[in-house]
Amino acid sequence: MKIQSKITLLFLLLSGAILILLNITVFYLVYRFGFDDFFKRLEARVNISAEVNIFPSAKSGAYQEMRNKYLERLEAEQAYLFNIDTINRVHIKGNIDVKSGFIQNILRNGRARYKLDNTFYAGRQFNKGTEKYIVIVSASDPAGFQELKDLQEILIYGFLAAMVLVYFVGKIFSFYTFQPIRRIISNVKNITANNLHFRLDELTGKDEVAELSYTFNDMLNRLETAFETQNNFVSNASHELRTPLTIISTEAELALSKDNVSAEQREVFNTIYSESEKLGQILSSLLSLAQTGFDGKKQRWESIRIDELVMVASESVKKIKPDSNIEIDLDTMPADERLLYVSGNSNLLKLAITNIISNACKYSDNRMVKIRMMAENNKVIVSVADQGIGIPQTELQHIFEPFFRASNTHSYEGHGVGLPLTLNIIRLHKGSIGIRSEVGSGTEIKVFLPVDKSA
To answer: Is the pTM of this model over 0.85?
Structure first.
């Protein structure tokens, strides 16, 4: 998921949480104060009922008339009058469905409120001389509950509408926020090893995006310098280094061809010749290793059939090492031939596969080396398994480092640049390498390359 989408989702979740808390708060306040108002209306009727029934006077008729004229009759309204004896026992008359705790609250606090489903009760204690009374008025409030239900629907639909609005606002907000980042990404995609002189437009301001642009341009300056240095080395090293080596080898070979050379001198010239040849091989490997660090677009790319490439690489190894024992297993190859094609430089890929097969033959003392080809998840897999000496587990992480050689390879010739060169080539082709090894049992190396979908 892109960061822009993550920010939109986070913005939506945070806004949703805030709206939910706001809706709960509004609903609770309306619920509480709406019912509080209804209880106050009941308490007003309690007072009027007490004036009329407990404290009758000349004004009682006026109270009753005012009550009938100005106070509406509530839904299912009922009034109850109870006597309290000298030991605070309440003599309840009539059918009233309240908990005993409600009556006790009235006796203890002088007044109380009580709600049972949609029926509300308000009660108060009145004293008339030595006599004590309790007046309770009950009524239903269907209009209040309907208002709460309507409010609940309004809050729910309002919440859903607000979430849709917040989503689109978040999309617009994140789009414009990341527009400078997208512009940087678009410019960076156009920068390769061929045009390292290109630079990003430096933005005004001191925000993080401007700092990112400045930092990237600074990194490009360093990369351009490094690439130019490497390019100069690769361009000049072949001539500058190979020429003296060729002269040394030629002179040593010429000296060996003379008949008047003593045995001791011949041994010295043989050593010079073999070591110069070995140095030439190391130089060639290092130059190849340096060249594979360039951008792949500088190479000649084509669609390559991997099974044909493996066969050519195997034949190359057999020509160099005639005693090698190589078996290519075709049973695991995919039925669809299109899954066998990869895009790349055939010479470089051949060099990489040849290095792996050659190592397998060398370190297995020419025992069987089995090669298989498979296709999984849009990737071509080339597996090379040997029955050789294996690699210690503690050293597996170092085998792709230049000039590193495992501790059990001292009796085998090598320079430690074959696998690093192979890894560079495979990475250049947007692939990867996996390795599994056990000392004394053998090693299996798998090369993963993306399938060429244009094939």
So the answer is: no
